[in-house]
Design a protein that fits this description.
With 300 residues, this protein is an alpha/beta fold. The protein has a single domain, classed as Alpha/Beta hydrolase fold, catalytic domain (Rossmann fold). The protein has 11 helices and 8 strands. The radius of gyration is 19 Å and the shape is globular. The chain starts with a helix and ends with a helix.
């Protein structure tokens, strides 16, 4: 009887290990791990179909690990290994939040190397797209394919204005008892409001082992970094031959949609998709349509 009990335990443990290796976690259940780089202990989540080249997700302003859309993450994990991480000083990652976009890019590069990868694909949203562009300028061979969503080029028109808009909608959220992303990411018509509620509901699906909340000081430093980056001289992105997919909503208030067209034109090997009746969070509102485009792009 005792031998049978221990045998059952061994089988369960083996099945659990096999499930973890085969990527049967969902973003709601995948554990948070840690790796050290640049004197920082980075918090990250990794799961999916493992291979030589993973997909790294670069998140938005004041976003911790719990701000990744589970529908997008799980769909990518079904085809590729997907890794999300907290920037320096954000969530469970240690250190003080970086005060410049290039510094955040240097941290990201160190994080990727600490995991042992020489090349990655990138899916970047909003500020994550700013960081990705700086990563390319520092170490262009680290990236293979890039998806840039709800973002724009350095020095893009209106990029530096995100500071005032963000504070305005944060206060609006406080007065209406809503997450500021309800206003920042989505249009305020009937369709946009439904999409906002659905998205915010998805972000709450993980109920255990959630990430640490983001401090107010992080918001201030990141907004300062964005403002400086938005006022800086544009970079020459034409030197990069990477396949780039640019996506956005047609009414992005945070990083105005014309910046997406500008960004796509600056890269020599890009394509652009603009979703109708949607804002900054167009990829979340149209996550199914986005995945139909992004998955073939990342897997072919």
């Amino acid at each position: 009887m005792k031998n049978t009990f221990f045998l059952a335990i061994l089988i369960i443990l083996k099945m659990t290990a096999t499930n973890a290796q085969s990527g049967t976690y969902s973003y709601v259940t995948v554990p948070t791990k840690f790796v050290e780089a640049n004197g920082i202990k980075f918090a990250y989540r990794s799961y999916g179909k493992e291979g030589d080249i993973p997909v790294i997700y670069f998140n938005h302003l004041t976003a911790n690990l719990d701000n990744c859309d589970p529908r997008i993450m799980d769909a990518i994990a079904a085809k590729r290994q997907i890794i999300s991480f907290d920037y320096r000083g954000v969530g469970a990652t240690t250190g003080d939040q970086g005060t410049s976009i290039p510094d955040m890019a240097k941290d990201a590069i160190a994080f990727i190397h600490a995991l042992g990868y020489k090349q990655v694909d990138i899916v970047a949203f909003s500020m994550g797209g700013f960081i990705t562009q700086e990563l390319l300028l520092i170490e262009p061979t680290l990236a293979r394919k890039i998806v840039l969503a709800g973002t724009g080029p350095r020095g893009g028109k209106g990029v530096s204005d995100v500071v005032g808009l963000t504070y305005k909608d944060i206060f609006k959220g406080l007065f209406t008892f809503r997450d500021p992303k309800f206003y920042l990411f989505f249009t305020q018509n009937k369709v946009g409001k439904v999409a906002a509620r659905d998205f915010l509901k998805r972000l709450k699906e993980r109920t255990e082992n959630r990430d640490k909340k983001v401090k107010l000081s992080v918001l201030k430093k990141q907004l300062k970094a964005i403002k400086n980056w938005g006022n800086d001289k544009p970079a020459d992105l034409s030197v990069f031959k990477h396949p780039v997919l640019v996506v956005n909503g047609d009414n992005d208030r945070m990083v105005p949609t014309p910046n997406s067209y500008d960004l796509a034109n600056r890269f020599t090997n890009s394509e652009i998709v603009i979703y109708p009746n949607s804002g900054h969070g167009g990829i979340f509102q149209y996550h199914e349509e986005f995945l139909k485009k992004a998955l073939p792009f990342l897997t072919k």
